[in-house]
Design goal:
The structure holds three protein chains of three kinds. Chain A is mainly α. Helix content of chain A is 75%, strand content 0%. In chain A, α1 (2-32) runs antiparallel to α9. Classes of the chains: A mainly alpha, B mainly alpha, C alpha/beta. Chains in contact: A-B, A-C, B-C.
């Protein structure tokens, strides 16, 4: 039983990491209706840029963070300008395919600039069990995972304040509700989109640092980031809360399945388990746990 | 000779419903067929056959398959490679386990198996659309190759799930040399391309497009959405399955099931985006483009680097490839969402009016 | 514009009867206890201010929406709720308020989809495109060409509908519905957004369809002149309730209808 909880907690904490990536998807989807397949690539790009800058200039962590953030903001604005603005009013599926192209572009670009080798990203955090829990309950809970969870919690809190308490946040929510109406009351749509993409770049940076520190900065990161998609299906594309809860559910059930089901199936099930779970879930509740049901008007 | 339809009047609907209603197009197709059947065998080197022409044909077929589903029926799939894997492995197993079975029957059964699997994974499309569905097809993409590797029966207990295909033999004639394999692929792909064209200009094709363009209206005029979508998944997967079988039997000879990965699926998706969504011709154009581009890019980069006296880091060309593919996809979606096929059509229209601008 | 009925045209028995239909979306009541009937060969108009529930009513008749209460009787059969496919099979065709054409397809293909229900060839024959399938395609093409002639859109038959002007698109949509050879034709604001000539053309088409093919028509329209001229009977809806029903003259004289349209101090 104790082992079960250990796995469960490990899974939940890993799920937090999925949520971090999923958050970026939700932000952009809410504000512009674009399903940004490239969010995972942005995570990879951010992590690689951070490590690359650190290696090159040997600056302190906060300075590198600031520089990378600037790069991500520029990238976000560039994406909005070059890719999405010309595609306004195209069908969602076209936008989706464009972001697939974007994902390839960003992945390629990151590696053209910084090279293809696997890099270590050191945030000064050790991936070791927390001694107190180890002694008291004999449970193995990674310090790193807990820090990641705290960071994710902070990030959500910051975003919540940003959305609900600031003028820009209000404008963002208005845009999410109805582009045209927002435009009509004088909200500068293009500026708002640029801001959203910048924020998504920021979220990608945070996710990239956490993931990179955990698994090393490498191409495979984009596959981990892809797991955010089943998370979104579970949570619903429009809900920040959904991204968090979906991430936790996927993380926990994936770990549990890996430990309890995996040996019976010959292992390697973590590659597909999340997707099949999302698929089955779709059949029951297509709009996700926290998504809104739409009625087609004709 | 000028490309004109002036003077070519259609006096019956039958004449008007030909695939190539314009005389010059028919002549062009005949010439193309002649070149492919006679010209290529005379001049093509082994490199051209094995590295360019055979994969081009195989990918064209896979692109037609995806185009039926995505371009005509409007259901985005990221699982194309998985259905190719099913077709390859099933064909291999029919050939292996059914004594005396003709290879073409194995191909058809392999395609049929892929069709059945495709229809099952198409079930979510009855409730979801767009990128929700795309995510659902990722489940197929990750699950199927895993299953085919894990259950070693599928690969006849070979290590790491490699299948080594049997020789392709029809009526005692073995298609063993690259040239023969090319001809085999050419015939299979040509026949299936014609069949695809027939399907999309019949009522099932119109039903697919209707569901794609406006599903509520399609339902109201009596098109069964459920059936139409599932048939699209099945037919599309059939094509992908045959393409997978050709990939194994005519192109590579021995295939690692793991090779049918997400990357291959994306590659085929790119073919239809660049070639032309909702166009059979576009499937060929896109496949040619995506097959040739890396080769050209590779040559250009290596030559360029040597000329400048630079040493390219390893893996650089494939990274540049990613950048170029990504940029091209975005470019086409913005500038010409209907791809090369549409550009070809525009060129024809211009030619028709030449030398007048309108 | 006057409407002189073809003397041979005879209003028949009840073809469609909706009884006590109520429809709600969540807490919002779109329709409350609506009943009316439509007789064979009749042109029946549904009028009412914006948001009165007119389109919702049509959506209930052909099964796009499922009303919570009430029944729909069509051609002698009674349904708790229709299903769109069933409705199409029984001969109910429909156009939409916001044009619902298949934008990527040509005019010809759009109208051909209207005949999909009548096409019988299986997948295998379609794949070969020989014999029965070719004959079937050609036979239906001929019928569709009649409709194209009738609607005077011959010159654009191969044009993708997305490129056509609004008025022509409306005609194509009517053509697609006609291709199904419906017994009952539901037209949702067929003349909305048209100029006077286009309206006249469309009126002519509607009357011709009614006269020549004997098709029963239910139409939603805002232009009172048109409604009063071409319809045999009129239903008036307001806030999801029926407030009037009868011949154009009766409806015109109905105090509730006048209040609904002109506003009244409560």
């Amino acid at each position: 039983m104790q082992f079960f909880f250990e796995v469960l907690i490990g899974g939940l904490l890993a799920g937090v990491m999925y949520s971090l990536v999923a958050l970026g998807f939700v932000l952009i989807y809410k504000a512009s209706g674009v399903f940004n397949f490239a969010q995972g690539s942005m995570v990879f790009f951010a992590a690689l840029t951070y490590v690359g800058l650190q290696e090159k200039f040997g600056l302190p962590g906060w300075a590198v963070f600031g520089l990378t953030l600037a790069v991500m903001v520029v990238l976000g604005i560039a994406i909005e300008r070059v890719v999405l603005r010309p595609l306004v009013n195209q069908p969602q599926i076209t936008l989706f395919m464009a972001t697939i192209g974007l994902a390839f572009f960003i992945e390629g670009l990151a590696q053209v600039i910084w090279g293809t080798q696997v890099r270590r990203l050191d945030l000064g955090l050790q991936d070791e069990p927390i001694a107190m829990l180890m002694d008291r309950f004999n449970m193995l809970v990674s310090k790193f995972d807990v820090v990641a969870a705290v960071v994710a919690g902070l990030l959500v809190a910051v975003l919540a304040v940003f959305f609900n308490r600031t003028r820009i946040g209000r404008a963002l929510r208005a845009v999410a509700d109805d582009h045209q109406a927002a435009l009509a009351v004088g909200i500068p749509l293009k500026q708002i989109w640029a801001i959203v993409w910048s924020v998504a770049g920021f979220v990608a940076l945070v996710a990239g640092l956490m993931w990179g520190a955990r698994n090393g900065v490498q191409f495979a990161l984009t596959f981990v980031a892809l797991k955010a998609l089943p998370v979104l299906i579970l949570g619903g594309f429009e809900s920040v809360l959904g991204a968090i809860v979906g991430g936790l559910i996927i993380g926990a059930s994936e770990k549990l399945a890996e430990v309890y089901l995996g040996p019976h199936l010959g292992g390697g099930i973590e590659g597909w388990f999340a997707y099949v779970m999302a698929l089955l879930f779709l059949l029951v509740r297509p709009e996700g746990l926290f998504g809104e049901k739409h009625i087609d008007r004709v | 000779m000028l490309y004109r339809e002036a003077g070519q009047f259609k006096t019956s609907y039958r004449a008007d419903q030909q695939i190539f209603p314009i005389l010059q197009d028919r002549i062009g197709m005949l010439v193309l067929g002649f070149v492919a059947l006679v010209g290529v065998p005379l001049v093509a080197s082994e490199y051209w056959l094995t590295a360019i022409l055979i994969p081009l044909l195989v990918f064209s077929l896979a692109a037609i398959g995806l185009n039926i589903l995505t371009g005509y029926a409007g259901q985005l799939s990221l699982g194309t490679a998985a259905f190719m894997a099913v077709g390859a492995v099933a064909t291999y197993n029919f050939q292996l386990r059914v004594p005396g079975i003709p290879i073409l029957v194995s191909f058809l059964l392999g395609g049929g198996t892929a069709a059945a699997v495709g229809a099952v994974f198409g079930l979510p499309s009855l409730r979801i659309k767009g990128f929700y569905l795309a995510v659902a097809t990722l489940a197929a993409q990750f699950f199927i190759p895993w299953l085919l590797v894990k259950v070693s029966w599928f690969s006849n207990d070979s290590a790491s799930g490699v299948i080594t295909t049997q020789p392709v033999e029809i009526l005692g004639f073995t298609f063993d040399t690259p040239l023969r394999k090319y001809l085999f692929a050419l015939v299979v792909v040509s026949v299936l391309a014609l069949v695809a064209k027939n399907l999309v200009r019949s009522h099932i094709g119109r039903a697919w497009m209707a569901v794609r363009d406006m599903d509520v209206a399609a339902e109201v005029i009596g098109i069964r959405i459920v059936r139409t979508k599932l048939v699209a998944f099945a037919v599309s997967s059939f094509y992908c399955g045959i393409a997978g079988a050709l990939y194994a039997f005519a192109y590579l000879g021995s295939v690692e099931t793991d090779g049918f990965n997400l990357d291959l699926s994306f590659r085929i998706l790119f073919m239809i985006i660049i070639g032309g969504v909702g166009s059979i011709l576009g499937s060929f154009l896109g496949a040619a483009f995506i097959t040739l581009l890396p080769i050209l890019l590779d040559v250009a980069l290596t030559e360029g680097a040597t000329a400048l006296g630079l040493q390219l880091p390893s893996g650089m060309t494939s990274m540049v490839q990613l950048v170029v593919f990504g940029a091209l996809i975005i470019f086409f979606l913005i500038v010409e969402p209907l791809g090369l096929a549409r550009l070809w059509q525009i060129a024809k229209e211009k030619l028709r009016l030449w030398p007048f601008p309108h | 514009m006057t409407h002189d009925h073809n003397p041979g045209r005879r209003i028949g028995e009840t073809l469609l009867a909706v009884e006590n239909i109520s429809l709600a979306f969540g807490g919002v009541r779109a329709l409350t206890d609506i009943s009316f009937d439509v007789r064979e060969h009749e042109i029946r108009a549904i009028i009412g201010p914006n948001g009165a529930g007119k389109s919702s009513m049509l959506n209930c008749v052909n099964g796009v929406y499922r009303p919570q209460q009430g029944t729909i009787r069509f051609a002698g059969q009674t349904f708790r709720h229709m299903h769109p496919h069933k409705a199409a099979l029984m001969g109910i065709a429909r156009t939409f308020q916001n044009i619902a054409l298949f934008r990527g397809m040509s005019v010809l293909d759009n109208i051909m989809t209207g005949r999909n229900l009548k096409m019988r060839c299986g997948l295998f024959l379609q794949a070969l495109y020989v014999g029965p399938n070719r004959r079937e395609e050609l036979a239906h093409r001929e019928k569709v060409e009649h409709i194209i002639d009738f609607l005077q859109i011959e010159s654009v038959r191969k044009t993708p509908v997305g490129r056509l002007p609004y008025g022509i698109q409306k005609r194509v949509e009517l053509g697609r519905a006609l291709a199904a050879e419906p017994r009952l034709l539901l037209l949702d604001e067929p003349m909305a957004g048209m100029n006077i000539e286009e309206k006249q053309d469309m009126c002519r088409f509607i009357l011709d369809v009614n006269d020549e093919f004997g098709t029963t028509i239910v139409l939603i329209e805002h232009d009172m002149g048109v409604v009063m001229d071409i319809s045999d009977r009129v239903v008036v809806l307001d806030y999801g309730r029926k407030i009037g029903d009868g011949s154009p003259d009766e409806v015109r004289a109905n105090q509730d209808v006048i209040d609904a349209y002109l506003g009244v101090a409560h």
